Amino acid sequence: MADKAKFIEELQAKYTAKGEFITLGKAMLDGEVVKEVDINIPLKTINRHGLIAGATGTGKTKTLQVFAEQLSHKGIPSLVLDVKGDFSGIAEPGADIPIIKERYAKTGLPYEAQSFPVELMTISGEKGVKLRATVTEFGPLLLSKILDLNDTQSSIMSIVFKYSDDKGLPLIDLEDLKKLLQYLTDNDQGKADLKQNYGSISPASLGAILRSIVALEQQGATEFFGEPSFDVHDLLQTRDGKGVVNILRVQDIQNQPQLFSTFMLSLFAEIYMTFPEEGDTGKPKFVMFIDEAHLIFNEASKTLLAQIETMVKLIRSKGVGIYFITQVPGDVPENVLSQLGMKIQHALRGFTAKDRKEIDKAVENYPITEYYDAGQLIQNLGIGEAFITALNEKGIPTPLVHTFLISPESRMDVLTDAEVATLTNQSALVQKYEQSVNKDSAYEMLTTRMEQAVQAAAPEVKATVTKAQPSIFQEVIGSRAGQNFMSTLAREGAKFVLGMITGKRR
Ligand SMILES: Nc1ncnc2c1ncn2[C@@H]1O[C@H](COP(=O)(O)OP(=O)(O)OP(=O)(O)O)[C@@H](O)[C@H]1O
Ligand SMILES: [Mg+2]
């Protein structure tokens, strides 16, 4: 039996913050909840990132819900990447159910069922705030990588972007890009213009580029490219003092985790580019939670992983914290893991030799504790219990503590379709991004120019133009192309971010 009085005294001291903090639960000792010890996490070190890990069904997502709620109470907005689609209930008050009341009774903390302000977001055209980016924002480098172009084709892409820039032909969506490529290869004026100033494009290269674009469109990227492009400052809303919980529902692209990870990187980059450096404000500006993060890490390439590592480092000074939620810490690459200040470890199961290795590794990384046999207890933590270690206000790891987490104050279930409809219908942000604006961009401008050229031509030329053999452009657009977009997108997403950070993007 550990010395309870000593435990209380020690742990109280280590889990007390001078500045603002959030409370995640109560300490436990020898299987009992110790009401005297609140597990308080200082807001000051929330931007030092973290991990929520544990076997399936141990309470990771509910812990994330509690975390997001507590931040919201402090006026801190968050973004939750909801891969399983089981998070939306935070927009409705919790049910009056006995298990929750019992839980709160054990902690002695007050329970008040309540909802939190929520924005639902989408990158795939479902209900919610539509998150988009323009072709120009991606830039020729990344776009070439996404399209898996070879060096020759990539340099053509750079020329095309340069041309669009020089001639004031905005590239907003993929239609613009295709139209410009068509103009530069099928249209006499376009061809001449290009040849004179930039060199010519071989039909084979053009065909390859167009095929890649079509493949990209077939993977659902059409929705993603366009205007209005999403302003990341819209993630920072508060309502009645509560931080808005932005939920990006990505369950429909579970099978395409690369798109998800590339999107995530683009978001990191936007945040990095547009959020100012935050001095020591004592609290985070914004927190990002990535549930089912193993999906990203499993699929990510070395470049992408390296980029995540870099972004995790860079984004901290912008006052942004990132939390990865996954089953075992080993899902997160070592160099990212080593940068995570807070660890919330739910139960792990030691079924296989590999599992047991993971357990040993997890335990090795905890601060040494005299109160628990961590290796043994970690396999026996109850649902909604976790080992926690965080950073205190001085940035020093707090002692490992067996924590009895509070329950969410909001609904521990999803929204109904009707509730989703109401929520999105009432959202001003949904409205703001609802209609893709098709401004006069390359497509419209070039279509007009090409039509005028045909009108101006002699009647016999006109007839030839309309009856002409399908151009490479038409052939490619009409054909079904390969489906390798997503993997490429993920592989090269990193360079996109690099391009953005180095300012090449805009
Ligand atoms: N803090 C909590 N308070 C009350 N109940 C909880 C708590 N945490 C977990 N539970 C219960 O455990 C169930 C599973 O929790 P949760 O969905 O968070 O697990 P998970 O670790 O995210 O699982 P998965 O890996 O399958 O996503 C919940 O539906 C809830 O009934
Ligand atoms: Mg979960």
What does the model show?
With 506 residues, the protein is of the alpha/beta class. It folds into 2 domains: 4-131 and 228-425, 3-Layer(aba) Sandwich (Rossmann fold), CATH 3.40.50.300; 149-217 and 435-492, no CATH class. It is 45% helix and 14% strand. It has helices at 4-14, 60-73, 98-107, 135-146, 151-166, 174-186, 188-197, 203-221, 257-274, 294-299, 302-315, 334-337, 353-364, 374-377, 417-425, 428-434, 442-456, 459-467, 472-478, 485-501, and strands at residues 21-29, 32-42, 50-53, 78-82, 118-122, 129-130, 238-239, 242-243, 245-249, 286-290, 320-326, 342-345, 385-389, 401-405. The strands form 2 sheets. A 12-stranded mixed sheet has the order 2-1-14-13-12-3-11-10-4-9-5-6. The protein has a two-stranded antiparallel ribbon with strand order 7-8. β7 (238-239) and β8 (242-243) form a beta hairpin. 50% of the residues are buried. Mean pLDDT is 84; it is low at 460-506. The structure holds adenosine-5'-triphosphate and magnesium ion.
Core attributes:
506 residues; alpha/beta; Rossmann fold; 2 domains; 14% strand; elongated; binds adenosine-5'-triphosphate; binds magnesium ion; T4SS_component; Helicase HerA-like C-terminal domain-containing protein; P-loop_NTPase; HerA_C
Give a brief outline of the structure:
Helices cover 45% and strands 14% of the residues. The protein has 506 residues and is an alpha/beta fold.
Spatial order of the strands forming the largest sheet: 2-1-14-13-12-3-11-10-4-9-5-6
* Spans of at least 5 consecutive residues with low confidence: 460-506
Shape: elongated
Count the domains. Answer: 2
Q: Which small molecules are bound?
A: adenosine-5'-triphosphate, magnesium ion
Q: What is the CATH topology descriptor of the largest domain?
A: Rossmann fold
> Which architecture of the largest domain per CATH?
3-Layer(aba) Sandwich
Question: Main beta sheet: strand number and arrangement?
Answer: 12 strands, mixed
Rounded to the nearest angstrom, the radius of gyration is 26 Å
